[in-house]
Amino acid sequence: MVGVRTSWRTLADGEFFCPECGGDRNYRRRTGRRRLTLLGVPVLPRGTAGPVLECSSCTGHFGLDALDHPTTTRFSAMLRDAVHTVTLALLAAGGTASRTVREQAVAAVRASGFTECTEEQLLSLLAALAADTGRLPGTYHDGRDGLDPCGTALAIELHEALEPLAPHLAPAGRESLLLQGARIALADGPYTGPEREVLTTVGTALSLDAQDTDRLLAAAARTPS
Predict the structure, then answer these.
(1) Is 154 exposed, middle or buried (CB count within 10 Å of its CB: 0-12, 13-18, 19+)?
(2) Residue 89 contacts by C-beta under 8 Å, 6 or more apart in sequence?
(3) Would you give the distance in Å from CA 174 to the centre of its chain?
(4) pLDDT per position as a tens digit, 135-162
(5) How far apart are CA 68 and CA 34, in angstroms?
(6) Coil, strand, or helix at residue 7?
(7) Residue 161, SS3?
């Protein structure tokens, strides 16, 4: 006979990763007003409800923090961009003279989702970045011109691509991304100093402990290619 009814009002809509469905779904952002009912008739206000996200599929209600989790589509794009950025950074650090390095780099980028990537495209993009002094390129600490793999601009690039992704990757996923970069660097022999610095920056941006990064890089170097 007596109960509480909530009248919902939709404020916005969009797409999110539904925790209950386990996939991308449409949502409605809603707020509501609670009213005490008597025999089904609203009689007294009982405050507000929400805001919540209501899944259009399971109709479950979730907090707004559910939007912090990227959709599957967005996550895939973030992962592709991360692999692409790490690959370019390692090519900038180690050079492109080695055919095996170029082939390993193209294979990594294709596997990440850029299936039509070619060696020519990577080299052209690297050349374009080298001409843009505001991004990956810089000057060496001793004043020489060229790509400084340890420079601030490169570190910013890697952190921008990897830090937003790291919280949504399992530890094994973060390690796999680092090891993928290690395989590119090792394709033509042991790590060079600049390649090692790039990979250390990658580990930091992925929230890996320095000891774990060193352990993984050392293990990769001992593994036959």
Answers:
(1) buried
(2) 136, 149, 154, 157, 158, 198, 201, 202
(3) 10
(4) 444 433 344 334 444 456 677 889 999 9
(5) 27
(6) strand
(7) helix
